[in-house]
Design goal:
This protein is of the alpha+beta class. It has eight helices and five strands; from the N terminus they run H-H-H-H-H-H-E-E-H-E-H-E-E. Strands 2-1-3-4-5 form a five-stranded mixed sheet. Strand 3, helix 8 and strand 4 form a beta-alpha-beta unit. Helix 2 crosses helix 3 and helix 7 crosses helix 8. The longest helix is centred in the middle third of the chain and has 17 residues. The chain is elongated. It starts with 19 loop residues before the first helix and ends in a 7-residue tail after the last strand.
């Protein structure tokens, strides 16, 4: 029994108004499938392989590597030139930096801690502020100040300046303890009280203050300190 092998998709065989770029002009990018978006980005094939075949390989590579995809992963695709691989990778990175929003709400301490791994092992204290929208989704994450081995200082104007510009509904603050001890210091408690009061006046409440070490996390809210 012979298996039917679908004929490779060629742009010139597609009705003009259904071709990816023409379709995007008429109906917007949201009307295109992931496969069609890749075809639009790639543009054309070459004498050995058509654009649909290249797009199919890129889609498979995206599914395999996700955000960890590297230049060499794209360059290994049949029909992919170095220039085209560079353009695709640059497009993905630009979208990641400026267009992709984190849609998972930060409802639990674990949700928040998962987004703070980069400060766990720092040798100095880093104070981070996470701006949240009304659905508790992350708008932006920023390092506000970097302190010493055992202390970090911040003024309310430094903490709230960007969340105000973000039109944040609330914020979460976090900092690391290089000492490995999660218990809050007197300075940590006083800073939290000061920032919480400022947040109430500004209408941007602090949902939590989290202290991180390499292996543990301390939540002010869970300990009824907020």
């Amino acid at each position: 029994m012979l298996l039917h092998v679908p004929k490779p998709r060629r742009i010139k065989d597609i009705p003009i108004l259904e071709r990816p770029r023409e379709k995007m002009k008429l109906r917007g990018p949201a009307a295109l499938s992931d496969f069609e978006l890749l075809e639009a980005m790639i543009g054309s094939g070459n004498g050995r392989i058509n654009v649909g075949q290249i797009a199919r390989q890129v889609r498979t590579t995206l599914h395999k590597y996700g955000p960890d995809m590297q230049f060499d992963n794209l360059k290994d695709i049949k029909g992919m030139s170095e220039a085209r691989a560079s353009t695709l990778l640059a497009s993905f990175e630009l979208a990641r930096r400026h267009l992709v929003r984190d849609v998972q709400p930060l409802r639990t301490v674990a949700d928040t801690v998962a987004r703070l791994d980069e400060i766990r092992t720092k040798s100095q204290e880093h104070l981070v502020v996470l701006s949240l929208d009304g659905g508790l989704r992350l708008i932006e994450k920023r390092v506000i100040t970097i302190g010493t081995l055992d202390s970090v200082l911040a003024h309310p104007r430094e903490v709230f300046a960007d969340p105000i510009a973000d039109r944040a509904a609330s914020i979460i603050i976090a900092h690391n303890h290089p000492s490995g001890l999660t218990a809050p210091s007197t300075k940590d408690r006083n800073l939290t009280i000061q920032l919480a009061a400022a947040g109430q006046l500004l209408g941007i409440p602090i949902r939590d203050h989290i202290i991180l070490t390499k292996t543990e996390a301390y939540s002010f809210r869970q300990h009824h300190l907020l």
